[in-house]
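Supplementary Methods S3. Complex input for the zinc ion-bound model.
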Amino acid sequence: MMRWMRKMLLGIFLLLTCLQFAACADLDVHFLDVGQGDAAVLICDGKVMMIDGGKPESSQLIYSYLTNTLGLQHIDCIIASHPHSDHVGGLQAALQACSVDQILTPLYYYNDPVFLRFRDMAAERNLPLTMPLAGTTMPFGGAKVSFLGPYKLFGDTNDNSILMRIEYGTTSFLFTGDAEIPEEQEALDRYPDRLRSTVLKVGHHGSSSSSGAAFLETVRPEIALIGVGVANTYGHPSIGVLTRLHDLGTEIYRTDLHGTIHLTSDGTSVTVQSERTLEDPGSAYTLSWAAFLQSEPVTRPESEYYVGNVKSLRFHLPICEGATKMSEKNRIRFETREEAIEAGYQPCGTCNP
Ligand SMILES: [Zn+2]
Ligand SMILES: [Zn+2]
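Predicted complex, serialized as structure tokens:
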């Protein structure tokens, strides 16, 4: 009788441990601060995937993050979203740090020394470059990866970025490389029902040539990740993209402001931790805006609309905290800057619209 009870108790303990294990199984996404570039390491049920590796200058950071921070020796799959050097530059360090099973790229050949060095290093390790076909899927631990682009090859290398959606439980992550509006449109036409995602890695560092309104409205991300360098000369991320995300109620995380961003999905929700936190999200925009103005003092990018305050007679960019914190009754919308000025409104000194 005693032995029977002990067996039963052991059985219950093992069952509870297993349940606990199942509950602990997570999808971890580390979106690394590699300055102006993209790099992400994903871990799911012991499987490891790396999507892009930043510029060649990020090599040391990539090596140390993989080996020291994460303690990894093996990567199951490396994905080079497209062959530009701000995406494949640091992937050589990943090949040096870890053994690798598989490399996926959208192109076998691209005439750039950084990509060709990466290709040579892969060849030395007997790793062929494989092109994932749009419409196919691949398991990744308990997650499922769907390849949604490129469906056909475009003339612009950015539009040949691997577009992939990773589904884990009811949560999902959409990685877009540097896909611009033509590739977004292709995905919208072919897979309109498969784009909605909890997290969007915003295309092309938040450039205005990506993240079209139709695409963002279809994806409707709760969280957006932007890999971008502090005060970069490209003016990334664009104020138009930030505004569109803001208007969808998306939480925006940017490597220039938040540093490295760590997301965890338990299958039902996604939590975010970042290296730096910004007490007030409004200050993030102010800070970036100031950085943007410093880098390109003569240009003032167009906003899609402006928000005036009927009391102070000032007008703001929609993402300025002067606008986000304004009470509804004081708010007036202007379609253009000129319209606001003609109505007698002064530009806000912080967002400088
Ligand atoms: Zn890029
Ligand atoms: Zn690119």
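The pocket of zinc ion (ligand 1) is lined by residues 84, 86-87, 178, 204-205 (CB under 6 Å). Residues 2-24 form the longest helix (23 residues).
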